[in-house]
């Protein structure tokens, strides 16, 4: 039996990589880690609905 896929909501937030500051889609890593420890597969859900989830998930 495959592991369940659990959607985790994400949000737009300013993120910094080195000298760059960009808007990014983020979610606290503790959520994804907890889902993984529980035996499921975490999936970060984008905060807008441009396409059905089946076309955006490749795994």
Mean pLDDT: 82
Q: What form results from the Cα inertia axes?
A: elongated
Low-pLDDT parts are none
Give Rg in angstroms. Answer: 13 Å
N to C succession of SSEs: EEEHEH
How would you characterize the overall build of this protein?
With 59 residues, the chain is an alpha+beta fold. The protein has two helices and four strands, in the order βββαβα. The strands form two sheets. Strands 1-4 form a two-stranded parallel sheet. The chain has a two-stranded antiparallel ribbon with strand order 2-3. The longest helix is centred in the middle third of the chain and has 9 residues, at 29-37. The chain is elongated, with a radius of gyration of 13 Å.
Quick structural overview:
With 59 residues, this protein is an alpha+beta fold. 22% of the residues lie in helices and 41% in strands. A hairpin with a 2-residue loop joins strand 2 and strand 3 (20-26).
Which short descriptors sum up this protein?
59 residues; alpha+beta; two-stranded antiparallel sheet; 2 helices; 4 strands; 22% helix
List the SSEs and their pairings.
Elements: E1 5-9, E2 11-17, E3 20-26, H1 29-37, E4 41-45, H2 53-56
Parallel strand pairs: 1-4
Antiparallel strand pairs: 2-3
């Amino acid at each position: 039996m495959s592991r369940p896929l659990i959607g985790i909501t994400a949000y737009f937030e300013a993120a910094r990589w080195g000298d760059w500051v960009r808007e990014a889609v983020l979610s606290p890593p503790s959520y994804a880690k907890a889902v993984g420890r529980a035996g499921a597969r975490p999936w970060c859900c984008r905060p807008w609905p441009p396409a059905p989830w089946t076309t955006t998930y490749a795994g």
